[in-house]
Specification:
The protein is mostly beta strands. It is 9% helix and 40% strand. The strands form five sheets. The chain has a seven-stranded antiparallel β-sheet with strand order 2-3-4-11-6-9-12, with no helix packed on it.
Length: 298
């Protein structure tokens, strides 16, 4: 009787394994060999209306919505001297990126000075705040791996089970993150290749980082299942929109490539690098397959 039971269990395990293997193969095979060819959404921050967000403490801050999609939200706050996003929490994970200027952010039970390029990974129910104590405007991105903004209230830190001290928040300094390319991480002190990037946040819920494209170089044309936002933070170039059509890009342009839509950005400057900030509402990076890399589609 015991032998039959063991045999039956073994057979069930083998059947389950075979089913999972078949399912995985089907999922892999579902990726197309050709892209959808767009269109890729392209805009400039100057084109967006300024809105005002009022918080529970009565204070408010100016913001612009870059993306408000089902799977991703990207919001840019512009904080003048003395402006703040008061202590709050979200029910979802988020990333905060200092795009311009300087500010102070709450993490690890204290206010921390941050500068352009600094990033925070803030898990759900962790309390944080952002304040501008300098004379220049601080521009701060909030990225959410879910939508829509109306379903993401800035909740007051009330209730139980909260990370009120912000102990789970990761404060990440861009300067300390190594450069990498398609071959892997570039050793400290090694020559940074014409196309290189820094993966600043890399976990199951999101991937965020920066990319550097040297003059007369490009990011190989490619497509992938996850959508993303790419913000051009410096330099100039051109980016693919649809079916071989390219549009000029400069600082504060951004693109949103839909699922399996081919995208391709080229640095047209002869002197300055083209810099990007990118965010995927999924992860880790190792699971994002870059399809058709370098192939000509038109």
């Amino acid at each position: 009787m015991k032998k039959k039971s063991i045999m039956s269990n073994a057979m069930l395990i083998l059947i389950a394994f075979a089913f999972l293997s078949t399912t995985c193969k089907k999922q892999d095979a579902s990726d197309p060999t050709e892209p959808t060819l767009g269109p890729v959404e392209r805009a400039h921050m100057d084109e967006l209306p300024v809105q005002s967000m009022k918080f529970s403490n009565g204070k408010s801050a100016d913001y612009k919505i870059l993306l408000d999609k089902t799977e991703m939200v990207a919001v840019l706050f512009s904080l003048k001297k003395g402006d703040e996003i008061p202590a709050h929490l979200h029910k979802v994970n988020k990333a905060v990126y200092i795009y311009d200027g300087k500010a102070e952010v709450f993490a690890q039970n204290k206010m921390n000075p941050v500068v352009k390029g600094d990033t925070l990974y803030i898990p759900q129910n962790s309390v944080t705040s952002v304040k501008n104590t300098s004379d220049e405007i601080a521009k701060v991105f909030f990225f959410f791996p879910i939508g829509f903004l109306k379903s993401l209230p800035f909740n007051s830190p009330e209730g139980t089970g909260l990370d009120t001290a912000g102990d789970k928040i990761q404060l990440l300094k861009e300067i300390n993150v190594p450069w990498e390319n398609w071959d892997g991480k570039i050793p400290a002190g090694g020559k940074v290749t014409p196309l290189a990037w820094k993966t600043i946040i890399d976990n199951d819920s999101m991937v965020m980082g920066i990319t550097k494209i040297d003059p007369n170089n490009d990011v190989d044309s490619h497509f992938h299942k996850p959508t993303q936002i790419v913000i051009f933070s410096d330099g100039e170039g051109k980016t693919h929109i649809a079916k071989g059509e390219y549009k000029e890009i400069k600082k504060d342009n951004y693109i949103y490539p839909p699922t399996y839509s081919v995208h391709h950005s080229i640095n047209t400057s002869k002197t300055a690098p083209l810099m990007e900030v990118y965010f995927f509402p999924t992860g880790p990076f190792s699971t994002i397959k870059y399809l058709g890399k370098g192939k000509k589609f038109w």
